[in-house]
Amino acid sequence: MEWRPDRTAKKAVYKQIADYIEQGISTGLYSSESALPSERLLAKELGVNRSTVVAAYEELKSLGIVERKKGSGTRISTDIWGISHKRIPNWGRYMEDGSFLPNLPLVQRIRTENQKRNIINLSSGELSPGLLPREQFKTIMAENPFLDHLGYDHPQGNAALRETIAHHVKEYKKIHTLPASILITSGAQQALHLIIQCLLKPGDSIAIEDPSYCYSLPIFQSAGINTFLLPVDQHGINPDDVIALHRKHRIRMLFLNPDFQNPTGLKMSPARRKRILEISSELGIPIIEDDPYSLTSFNSEVSDTLKSMDGNGNVLYISSLSKIVASGLRIGWVIGPENVIERLADAKQQVDFGHSIFPQWAANEFLKSPSFDKHIHMIRSELKIRRDEIVVSLDQYVKKEVDYFIPEGGIHIWCRLKHAVNEQQLLEESMKRGLSFVPGSVFGSQKRYVRFTFGREETDVIGEGIARFAEALSVCVKT
Ligand SMILES: Cc1ncc(COP(=O)(O)O)c(C=O)c1O
């Protein structure tokens, strides 16, 4: 036998062997009349442990491809290859071969852990239940029980909501636009996905911030996009870094989150905003401005968005209601040149036939109502209370072990650990104690960072969360 499993491959050796045997069955290498090679023989031929062959045969058995009986070895399943021609698909192989990549393992791990009751969740980037405008939405639902249209809506989004968003961005973000230049999406996330799918192609290079929320999204990798990192300091990225990067890699797009950036909580300075727009125009590189957080500004001062400063149509602007109203509404939007918006809307129609009418309608009623402005004021002061609470707790429990930057808005605080620790171990030790947070590597940071979200939990448990973190950290620093 010439074939040998590849020990350097990502796929487990037993899975490679299972795939090899399955392929051998379909090509006739193994016939249904005779038994498959014994575990011992196959292990010898492939140079692996017998237990690895056992695992491979068990995998094939679970898929219904082989039958295993004590004493008579392993045979090709007669049910499948014989009389009935029934064949169970190898779902494992399909799942591995799909072009859309799964989430990062750490993200999957945190998601599973967050399902547990009593976990203190300092990881999910959303508002706590107490901050959601439940009463206002109950009133909206009760007062407007009938929708006049329940068919497919315009793929670009409901016309009334687009009109309201045009007013909203003018009032709160100084962006002047028309409903025809707006696309309603399923959160900012879908906006990012549509842009990647429609405006970029495999092999393109883009630049993202380092660290960056975008790094946590395999959607770039799934689309075959090369991502290059622009380091962030306390004023955001250094715009001139883009020039050097572009010379080397022909950057086709810049993804920036200038306000209360996820994960650092930093704001890009006005001077750098101006400069990045100049560079974008000089080099002809479009900017994707991702802005879910600017309205959370604790002192109510909202910086000029890149879109509001953009005289040349270089910026595609993304925002969402997830961090200021409710993430479960799944209402986001993109603002850009009409032809680009039409292209994205055409894709959205193919993906989901346009956004569901119910959240669009509810969002429109809320955004139009006087409650919205009051709600934003409440969110700002409540988030500031939570921010203050986490800062006090960090000082109380881990002052000697952690440095951090105090954010003036948003929902995240980015902490640097003064001592090297194994971040996987730190996460597991924290989870054992009923706490979740996000390790820095999820955002591309190679250094010792963690992100805590202070917006997701009620104020009274934030301190307990940091106390649990301090305990977990002390275990990891010792080992
Ligand atoms: C910077 C940034 N962009 C986009 C998103 C996606 O948000 P959503 O799809 O809920 O609007 C998030 C969520 O955490 C984010 O932090």
UniProtKB/TrEMBL annotation:
Keywords: Aminotransferase, DNA-binding, Pyridoxal phosphate, Transcription, Transcription regulation, Transferase. Residues 11-79 form the HTH gntR-type domain. Transmembrane segments: none annotated. The keyword rRNA processing does not apply. InterPro entries: Aminotransferase_I/II_large (IPR004839), HTH_trans_reg/aminotransferase (IPR051446), PyrdxlP-dep_Trfase (IPR015424), PyrdxlP-dep_Trfase_major (IPR015421), PyrdxlP-dep_Trfase_small (IPR015422), Tscrpt_reg_HTH_GntR (IPR000524), WH-like_DNA-bd_sf (IPR036388), WH_DNA-bd_sf (IPR036390). The keyword NADP does not apply. PANTHER family: HTH-TYPE TRANSCRIPTIONAL REGULATORY PROTEIN GABR. This is GntR family transcriptional regulator. It comes from Domibacillus epiphyticus.
